[in-house]
Amino acid sequence: LDKYAFVDHFVQKNALPHKEMASAFAKTNIALVKYWGKRNRELNLPVTSSLSVSLPVGTYTTLTIGENGSDEVFVSGKKVDTESVFYKRTTSFLDLFRPKNFFFTVETKNDLPTGAGLASSASGFAALVLALQKLFNWSLDKKALSMLARLGSGSSARSLYDGFAIWHKGSQENGLDSFAEKIDATWPELRMGLWILSEDEKKIDSKNAMIQTTQTSFLYKAWPEQVANDLEKMHEAIQNSDFTLLGTTAEHNALSMHATMLSSAPSICYFLPESIRGIQKIHDIRKQGYEVYCTMDAGPNIKVLFLEKDRMAIQNEIPELMVLEPFRQGSDEINYAE
Amino acid sequence: LDKYAFVDHFVQKNALPHKEMASAFAKTNIALVKYWGKRNRELNLPVTSSLSVSLPVGTYTTLTIGENGSDEVFVSGKKVDTESVFYKRTTSFLDLFRPKNFFFTVETKNDLPTGAGLASSASGFAALVLALQKLFNWSLDKKALSMLARLGSGSSARSLYDGFAIWHKGSQENGLDSFAEKIDATWPELRMGLWILSEDEKKIDSKNAMIQTTQTSFLYKAWPEQVANDLEKMHEAIQNSDFTLLGTTAEHNALSMHATMLSSAPSICYFLPESIRGIQKIHDIRKQGYEVYCTMDAGPNIKVLFLEKDRMAIQNEIPELMVLEPFRQGSDEINYAE
After folding, report:
1. Nearest by CB: A222 against B218, B248, B274
2. Which chain A residues are within 8 Å of B231, Cβ to Cβ?
3. pLDDT per residue as tens digits for the range A245-266
C-alpha cells in the first residue's frame, strides 16, 4: 500500500466544486512521550505511540489555486527555491491530493524558527491539511485529518488538537488505525518555556536520524518497552494533575530518546555544549526546590516544564526563556480563525 | 559467599613469614569495550566481559608493616584523612588480607589525577594486590591476582597485564571464573591521547552510577547484547590490526555506555559542555581524513585513539593532548620495578 492508495480511502482527487482560496492555522506540539522510529516509512507508521501538548504558537497557511503550470511556495512572504528540500517536501505532499492540472500557491508563516527541533513541520503539515479540507470542502473528522497530516510528518498528526493529544501507533499494515486523538484534560497552570540555544539548521534531519537509530542502535531495542511504561505514567500524571510524575517522566523519556541516538553508529548527537550547560542549569534550579523539568526534541534546544507558581523564580534564573501557556483561555478557538 | 570467604580460596591470612616492606607498580588500563554494571556487588562480578589496553602510566604503591594500632594511608606523600572515602576503601580492601593485629602503612602515588575517570582506582588496587603478594610471599598467578584485585575495583582485574587484556564476566555465582587475562597481540603503532578537560572529582562515583543505571534504565537491558557484539569485533580488530574496526567499535561502545547512563532516572550525565565540544572536534578531524576515534569513561575526559602516522596532525589540532604509547619498548618490564 502506498501513500496515494492510502489517501484514496479518505478523499477523491477530482472533487469539485472547490474554493479559490483557504487559510488555516495549526498549533505546534511538543511531545512529552516522544515519537522516535518508524515501522513503515511509506505510510509514516511509528514504532511506538506518543503523547504531546500543543502550544499557542504554530503555523498559518493560505492555499490558493494557482494559474501557473507549477506550485509556488512562500515562507514569511519569501519565495522558496524549487530545488529546496522545503519546496519538494511541500509539493510532493500536495501531489497526494492534487486533482489533474491543479497547481497551488502556498503561503505559510511560522511563529517559531524552522529546522531547530521546534516542531515547525508538525504544525506546518497540520495547517496544510486543514487548509486543503477547506479548499476542497471535505468534511473529514480530525481523526481522519490526523492520518492525512501524518503522511507529511508523523508528529503533525498530534498538531490537529489543542491541549494533550495521543498518537496511537496502531498495529495494522494499512495504516488506518494509526491516528491521533485529544486527551480530555486541561491543566491551566502548566507552562512550557522555550529555551532557544541555536537557530541553526540541524546537521541531520530527524527522518534520517530515526533511520540511523533504528538500524544501528542496540539500545533502541529496549525503547518500545520504555515508551509503553512512560505512556502509562503520563496518562496517570495528566489524570491526577501530578506534576512531579509528568516532569520526571517527560525528562526521562526525552533524555532516553537522545540516548538511543547517541548509541547509534555513527553516533548522533543533537546536544550542543550549551545544551549540556542548560540541562545542568535545570537540575541546579530543581535542587533549589523549584519543580522544573526539561524535554528536548531532535535539536539542541531545551523545552522547560514548570507550573505558574514557579514562573517568576524560573524566569529569573533563565531570563531568555520564552514562556508559553498551553491551556491559555481563548487559544482553543484560534484553530479555526480565518 | 562473601568477599572474605572468596579470599580464603587463594590465601591464608595468618601466612608467615612476611617481609617488612614491599613495593609494586601497576598500569592504568582504558577499556575499549567497557565494563558497566555488576551482577553481584559483593564479589564485584560484572554483567558483561570487557576488554582494555594498558598504558605506560599507573600507580606506585609501597606497603609497610605498621607499628600503630591502625592503618595509615599516604597519597603523593600526603596523609589521607581516616574519614575519607579513599581511606575507607583502601583499608577495607586490606581487611580482606589482614592477619590478626596487623596494620599497614600504604604509600601510593598516581601518574594521573584521581577521580576524573582516568582509571586510577584500577591501577591502584592492582598495585596494592601486587604489593601484598610480595609482602606475604604469595605465589599466585596473574589470573588469581586479577580476581583478588577485582574485589577492590572491577576494572583493576585488567590492570595486572600489559597490552590488551580481557576480563571474562564468568557465569558461576562463586566468582571463581571471573578473571582477566592477557590477549596475545601487540600493536606498536597504536596511540592513546589523554585529553583532560576537567580534574574535578566526579559528582557521582562509578559504583553508584552503575547501580542507578542497572536499576532504572530501560535501555540498559539491550547493553549486554551490544557488548557481546562489540567484543567479537574488537577481537577481530586486534587480530587483524584493523584500526578502523578498533576505533569505530570503541567509540560506539563508549558512547553507548554513556547513553545507558543518560537514560537512567534520574539521568546521569558525565558530559561537560567541553566534552561535547571535544567529541565534535574528534569528528571534525576525522572528516579531514585522519583516522581518529574517542572513548570516554565515567568522567568528562576524552581518550583519543589514533596511529603513530597521524600523530603530528592530531597533536596540531589538539595541542593539549597527552600522547601515550601502550606498546612502547621497555614498558613491559616496569611492572616489576621496585
Report:
1. B218
2. none
3. 999 999 999 999 999 999 999 9
